[in-house]
Amino acid sequence: MQAYIAAIEPVNVEWSKNICLKIFFAGCNFKCPFCNTPHLLETNEEFLKDLKDVKKEIELNGSFTEAVIFTGGEPCLQKPQLVELAKFCREKKIKVGIETNGSKPEVLRGLLKEALVDFVAIDIKAQFDEVNAGFKEVNNAEVSVNEAEVNNALFEKVTKSKTFFISTNQIIQDIKTSLEILHEYKDKVDIEARTIIVPSLLFRKEDVIKVAEIVNELDARWVIQRFNNMPELVEKNFEHIHPPSTTFLEDLKEACVKKYPKLRIEIK
Ligand code: SF4
Question: For residue 265, what are the β-bridge partners?
């Protein structure tokens, strides 16, 4: 079997004391304007690799690798390849982590059901709501369809994920399902939610507090990440936006913890 894998690199990650091996799957179904891996968003032929060679590389690094982390791009888009590599790691007694945008709940469910992952990092890129009903209950308050549509419009702006084939509402529903699945497994795997604070997109206190509500329900560690204006972003105009200051991020953290005291927030 072959997979679109753009790179395999040893990295230091905080949840592991030893070196981990990151496997970068090529291809993503989102086009976040601030994404700093634009070269990983398409499945170019140059990335095609035989899984036998990928396994060899995992084995070669086995002596100093505590875990393999599947990232991207979006690794869940290549389900059979991802599952096969995760099973291989299990056989070799190497821990498995995955970094996902949460849009493929059935893949996540499969990995968790078969106990093939130890760590899941899921992006919660912006707040979202269900727009099905006239109103929905949030913390005993009714949120109108209009408000839900405003929230979902921001989600679309942050992810640029809708296409002719899939609506923003469907993507949001899929992410909600992923979060529900993760909540079910929260005592069995290490779960981390991640949100990037991007000036001009997701930065207003009221928006970040709405994301905090979602993370609070998930009951996971939450990493608030600083947007980084690196030279190669998906949208060039984001390269001129300054990263938020530490004080700004600390203020956001304080506001979220004030509203949801049980939140475990790290700023990076
Ligand atoms: S930041 Fe967005 S576009 Fe980039 S890999 Fe992650 S989900 Fe895909």
Answer: 222
